[in-house]
Structure formats: structure tokens, C-alpha cells
Amino acid sequence: MPATLPTVTSEGYRFATAEIARGIKLVSGLTAVPAAPGWLAVGCYSPGMARWLAEAIVEENVEARAEGANLLVPVGASYTLKGEIKNVITAVAKTTHYWREHMPTEVKQTLELQARLGSVKEWFTGWLRRKPQSTQPGTPTS
Q1: How distant, in Å, are the alpha carbons of 96, 112, 123, 137 from that of 55?
Q2: Which long-range contacts (CB under 8 A, 24 or more apart) does 116-124 make?
Q3: What is the 3-class SS of 47-85, one letter each residue?
Q4: Phi, psi of 34, rounded to the nearest 5 degrees
Q5: What percent of the chain has pLDDT over 90?
Q6: pTM here?
Q7: Helix 86-101 with 47-59: angle, nearest 10 deg
Q8: CA end-to-end span of the chain, whole Å?
Q9: Calpha distance 53→115 (Å, rounded)
């Protein structure tokens, strides 16, 4: 997450948010909207795509993470056009281009399956935590 929580109402923050969202739309066709303070959520076609993009963007030295089918990229009030704004947009441009033009369909399908299996694992793990513990023979029940 960005170092300090930004003032989301500041002119600088609003400018950076608008420019990054506009740039992402132009270079990728994807829509970016404000998420939690310091983050923009980029809507992806699938959770597998969002996760892969996040990992690839981190390799480009830009913070990113995935939440479901959303790719989260950073935004801050101190971001400049020639600095961080350009870096975020460029990283999204490079990675979405690679995803669309060079990633084999089989790899995309595998990544999507991995994302779905991860969701099933999370659901099952949560279910196991909620499941009441069975009692031992001879142990009184409430």
C-alpha cells in the first residue's frame, strides 16, 4: 500500500486518480475506478487475469495486487505525470498487451482454473473453521 494514506479530496489526488484511470482506459480498454484510499481498482475479465497482471506489474517495480477480478494499482496525491502516473499506466499497458497478444489460451485457462481452485480452497477452509468440533465419547455436550 502507498506509504501514507492520501487525502482523497486533495486536488493532487483527484488529478492523479483521473489521469491514471484515463491512461489505463486508453492503453488497455479496462476501466479503473477509485477503491480504498491509495488504490484504483481495474476491472479485469477474470480473477486469473487480475492475479497474473498484479504479479507481472510487481515485476515492473510498481505496487499491485489482485482482489477477485479486480487489479489494484496505487495512486497518490504526490504522483506526477512524468513519474508515478506514467509508471503505473506503462506497467498496465505492457502487461495487458502481453496478456492479450502473447499469452497462450491454454495458459490463461490454467491461470483461471488456479484462481477458481483458490476460491474453493478459501471457501472450504472457512467452512472447516465454522464447523463445530465433534465431541469425544463420554464428553458432555451443551
Answers
A1: 12, 14, 23, 49
A2: 116/47, 116/48, 119/47
A3: HHHHHHHHHHHHHCCCCCEEECCEEEEECCCCCCHHHHH
A4: -60, 140
A5: 65
A6: 0.79
A7: 130
A8: 46
A9: 13
Grid coordinates representing 120?
474453493
- Identify whether the C-beta of residue 114 lies closer than 8 Å to the C-beta of residue 48: yes
- Looking at residue 117, what is its pLDDT? 86
* φ, ψ dihedrals at 106, nearest 5°: -65, -35
Pairing state between β 39-43 and 70-74 = antiparallel
pLDDT of residue 58: 98
CA angle 4, 11, 63 (to 5 degrees): 40
pLDDT of residue 26: 98
Q: For strands 39-43 and 32-34, give the pairing.
A: antiparallel
CA distance linking residue 82 with residue 16, whole number of Å = 11
